[in-house]
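Re: that chain you flagged

S.,

Sorry for the slow reply, it's been a week of failed gels. I finally had a moment to sit down with the sequence you sent. For the record, here it is as I used it:
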Amino acid sequence: MFVLSISGRNLLGEVEVDMEPISVGLLAILALLIMLFLGVHVAVTMGLIGFVGFWIISGTFEGARSFAISTAYSVTSSSDFAIIPLFMLLGAAILESGMASGIYETVYRWVSAIPAALAIATTIAVAIFSAVSGSSLACAVTFSKVSIPEMVKRGYEKGFAAGLVAAASTQDALIPPSGLLVLYAIITDQSIGKCLMAGFIPGILSILLYIGLILILKKIKPLWFGTSSSFSIKEKLEVLKGSWQIPLLAVLVLGAIYTGVTTATEAAGVGAFLSIVFGILMVGLRRMKIRDSLRTTVTSSGMIFAILMGAFIFGNFLAVTRIPAKLAEFVVAAGLSKWTIFFIIMVLYTILGMIMSTTAFLVSTMPIIFPITLSLGFDPIWFAVVTVKMCGIGMLTPPVGLAVYATKGAVGESIKLSKIFKGASPFLIPDYICLILICFFPDIVLFLPNRMIG
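Prediction finished late last night. Pasting the structure tokens below so you have them in one place:
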């Protein structure tokens, strides 16, 4: 596509173009969408298009090469970005240690007297695990192995049990430390700590709405639910001995960020260190498991850094074309109300969330959408939660419902993919209710960030 717009004298030297930067930028956006829909990795897509686009505008290969190298270096050399592997290590150590099973059993025993106790226990346990995980897919895989077999054994309908786990895992996108909120903060140059704390109350609200739906479904769809056990006070107290590590880590990490005792990166480092210590002292985390945690951290962090490098190359290229600024000016001059434009953005997000992965969805839209929301006067921290909530909804909607596919991968052939999508679909109702509430009552999002000490 770009080759057609170049009349070159030297393939790796100077080029002459007869196109305005805005025209090059529009072609780049079109190429981006085509390549993403064809399944090309988002890091490769954004990095390559940003590099070639800048080459065309600057007219020199050397200029484009220097632009790409300096942009990539700014991502990998910034200490602020160290929060990504640290939070990854925190979640990986918890995952490999098996502490998630202890949390599930503890919550189940303490809510066993409530109708649909296993389903509610799964929802709450996922929320607690989310406070130290940072990855919705890790939540989905972990609790697919921990809670689905138990629910099926107790008589729960398979599709509903799997759908519940897939849906509950998407709340990890909101509950700090959320990997998506960290990505948003980095890409939009917002406070990582404020973005993380902004997701806490909406995440808890989503969990409460899920529990409310479960209680309603228990009344209208009793065949979906199975039996529960009863436990004595002694049994409830006994199980606490092996399940205090994750809540303590969550309180320490989030408390440190909220009070300003440490930065978000420092809190992630302390949490990662303590997760390994707890794993060794409390559950006998073996050397092999520690190595697996480190391998998972390196692999996941490498992928995220590659995506960030591509996103920054593409975003900086777009800034040179001035498309985001011109688009923001056009939107403001159009005379539409800010909420009409916001509704259009939400419709666009709904469509893109159905056909793109959450990471691709987030990093590819922010360079264009974020300047528009700023020009309309929307709070960038509030918009972070709205965007990430839409990402969570996208993880449940076909054809690219990543949380559903992660659950399917964990359960294998025992449950059909269509049944998991069907089981997860009722939970889109509380998701959209939560989205509406945070739109009409932004203080739900901004209450904690506005009161942070640090």
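What I noticed first: Residues 82-304+380-451 form one domain.

Talk soon,
D.
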